[in-house]
Amino acid sequence: MDNIAGKVVVITGASSGIGEATAKRLAEKGAKLVLAARREDRLKALADEIVRLGGEAAHAVADVASAEDMRKTAGLAMERYGRIDVLVNNAGIMPVSRLSELRVEDWDRMIDVNVKGVLHGIAAVLPVMREQRSGHIVNLSSTSGYAVSPTSVVYGATKFAVRAITDGLRQEESAASGIRATLVAPGLTETELLNGLTSPEARAIAERIKGLGMSPDRIADAIVYAIGQPDDASVSEIIVRPTALAM
Known about the structure:
Largest sheet: 7 strands, parallel
Helix content: 40-55%
Oligomer: single chain
Number of helices: 7
Order of helices and strands: EHEHEHEHEHEHHE
Structural class: alpha/beta
């Protein structure tokens, strides 16, 4: 993994779960981090911990649904480190429910965060990476981006969209500008994603599968693997599923 040391990595959704685990793994490998999320207290605590252990980290309070917030986050990376080598588009939400429940506000928010948020991240870093003629964008999808299931229709649709965006980015930029694109699709992972469920049916499903998910460290390891590959190799797609679940 010698290809990670010194790289400037922007991570969204860095205050907990996969984002936090990825930040810690990359800091151990010598990356310079810009951590973005909405919860400043969690971000600052993580950045302080990384610095205390000898790493480098800055943080920016940002909502990926805001294109301006993502531009400011990229600006912080450029001001602090002068380049952006990697973006980990990790932020996401999962207030799942059946379509018949008509939770339109949840649908809108999932589209804003899970789809527009990915695009806002790309828009913030792509000009920099094109000028550098190098870079790597890692987008977090889900196994729900491969198969639709009841209660997960809109969430799955957002993750199908992330797959399409990532593959399109790869086709447009890889050969033309040397920018790599990787899709990482986790199955059930022990994060905060299920904490905000309001649908009674979805809460019941979450309770049945509680404790069967993977540690966020497993997904962080996959992200680190993709980033650490030599520049002449591009890991296009990684799916990681928990052993305890067939779904």
